[in-house]
Amino acid sequence: MAGMNRRDFLKAATVAGLGLPLLPLARPTMAGTGGSVKPDHPVVVSSGNGEKAVKKAMELLKEGADPLDAVIAGVNLVEDDPDDISVGFGGLPNEDGVVQLDASVMHGPTHNAGAVAALEYIKNPSKVAKLVMERTDHVLLVGKGALEFALANGFKKENLLTEKARQIWLYWKGINSNIDDWFPPPLEELDEDVRKIIKRYFDVHGTINCCAVDANGDLAGVTTTSGLFFKIPGRVGDSPIIGAGLYVDNEVGAAGSTGRGEANLKNLSSFMVVEYMRMGKSPTEACLEACKRIVEHTKLPELLGDDGKPNFNVKFYAVNKKGEFGAGAIYEGGSFWVYDKHGARAVPIPGLYKKNKKRK
Ligand code: GLY
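# glycine complex -> structure
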């Protein structure tokens, strides 16, 4: 069988008259494995923009939904929301004004995963990522191939660049360089909400991560984003990379991240968070340990502030199989969302350091 995959083998076996039918390959069931460790109630965690996501996911978990279906339905609400400029429809575009989306999903019971990167025109990349997981033998599809896969599966092409995002992008193009021929429009000519965003633009970070454990102890997670604002076309962040922006191990827990994706790509940090939980650390301790590792590995001068600390932030969110949850960041501040037996609430994110002013 060297050099032959299972699909080739089935085909060859049928042609050779071995009696094996040419049927679709059996997929592992989505049914959970559960196990002896279970929370006493489902738990959902999400990033600071995840209020709607945790509420929707919990509603579905209480109805008995698979945890991956629950978290995807949760983040779909944010992907569809034009007011969230960091995710899905209305996300800020790349430097050419084109919205390119990244997403990944991971299902604990089957230890299966799917992802898309630099996907254009499709506002729910998390749904396409799930189809990559379910309908292909692959984990990650990118760019044109990801779009063609989505269209083949019935997704519709849409213009994802909202008027608000277009105005912000054009303003950025005008102020971005003094060696090209673009000038910014006068601020007073821009919509009020666009002006507000521009005024705080250098402080805006996006992406949504949502992870859950159901009452059976089964875990799942999703991360979806429009990525770094005004990125170089084709740039892929951590969100669609399994282990970087998301990781799930059904025996241990689930973790995901927002913030500077390049730091997670160089450290496989979400995998690290889950591994720290496997070693017995609480979700909060595990998130903060991963932050420490990123700090230790940040050596490039352009990524360090005058105080020698990273000039960017990364945040992690985690839940373990028992339903314990937590978050951690390099710089404290902001909050994440949790929904457990006590209801939905925003919880402050602890950090290694107090916020510094200059971040990327
Ligand atoms: N963490 C999101 C990104 O860097 O694209």
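# post-check
The chain is about 30% helix and 20% strand.
The chain has two domains: 32-161+202-353, 167-201.
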